[in-house]
Amino acid sequence: MQFGIFSVGDVTPDPTTGRTPTERERIKAMVAIALKAEEVGLDVFATGEHHNPPFVPSSPTTMLGYVAARTEKLILSTSTTLITTNDPVKIAEDFAMLQHLADGRVDLMMGRGNTGPVYPWFGQDIREGINLAIENYALLYRLWREDVVNWEGKFRTPLQGFTSTPRPLDGVPPFVWHGSIRSPEIAEQAAYYGDGFFHNNIFWPADHTKRMVELYRSRYAHYGHGTPEQAIVGLGGHVFMRRNSQDAVREFRPYFDVAPVYGHGPSLEDFTDQTPLTVGSPQQVIEKTLAFREYAGDYQRQLFLVDHAGLPLKTVLEQLDMLGEEVVPVLRKEFASRRPAGVPQAPTHQSLLAAASKGVTVE
């Protein structure tokens, strides 16, 4: 099972000091967080993609390419690649290039995005979000698997005898996760292609996540990719830790109360009770994360959000130390001991290449 962190790259004032980091500071902080993730033994760093303030990660492959040059083991991913407003041809080119530079340590997560104004900035209509996701990914899928593509659709100009370059490393495309919070159509899409399904898992209660994951698992089996238990599932989660749980609550409360994705809504206590958000001791994070298995089944990737809402970089790096030293080693052991035989590990470039060399279809 893979463990890592994902960042949305928000530039948010620190509510305890009133200071807002510069864009440069936030970008450099994200790089520092990625490097720390490898240092403490995590497996994955994933960045979001946003094209509007107050966010900075508008060019994920630029950042991930830089991180690739400074790491050796870390899997470089996205927590959203906008399949709706990006050209599939450019996605194919950019991530194949990143694959080569990072020696295969690359996968990505497709998402529609939920910021309405971004669509017209890129010449699209948010009301076509689902249709764009379906058509654009169908083209991307072919671009990585066919040397010459002839294609015509609704949302971009036709392609005639087109070859995307560079070709995927070793002829094996990056593994794709389809991320969705609430759209069953995206769970269906992930199942149809035999790709992974990632549920953000930081807003919604467990019963909603359970329904989405079960839909994906059942449709994965329907399309003949394996049993429901063999479907590839990833989950998010938001944590804030201190040795003493009361200290964690006291320190995090001012950040939670004004956070871009949480603030001015339910109380911190209600949110931690009703959603996967965990604010407390490392042991509480372990216990709540292990409980995800009760409604999502045995899954392959767990990513934590740790740098949201204006938290200082020093505090975020302390969170990573606790994850690496106290939380993830226990989670690795416990999840492994409970995993039934036949449940696959998270795909990597090496495992996909090995499957392809044996003549197994690489989804």
TrEMBL record:
Domain Luciferase-like, first and last residues per copy: 1-295
Biased composition (Low complexity): 9-20
Gene3D superfamilies xref list: Luciferase-like domain (3.20.20.30)
InterPro entries: Bact_Lucif_Oxidored, LLM_FMN-dep_put, Luciferase-like_dom, Luciferase-like_sf
Pfam families: Bac_luciferase (PF00296)
Source organism, top-level taxon: Bacteria
Record SUPFAM superfamilies: Bacterial luciferase-like (SSF51679)
Disordered as annotated region, ranges: 1-21, 339-363
UniProt keyword terms in alphabetical order: Monooxygenase, Oxidoreductase
Keyword Oxidoreductase: yes
Protein name: LLM class flavin-dependent oxidoreductase
Organism: Streptomyces plumbiresistens
Lineage: Bacteria, Bacillati, Actinomycetota, Actinomycetes, Kitasatosporales
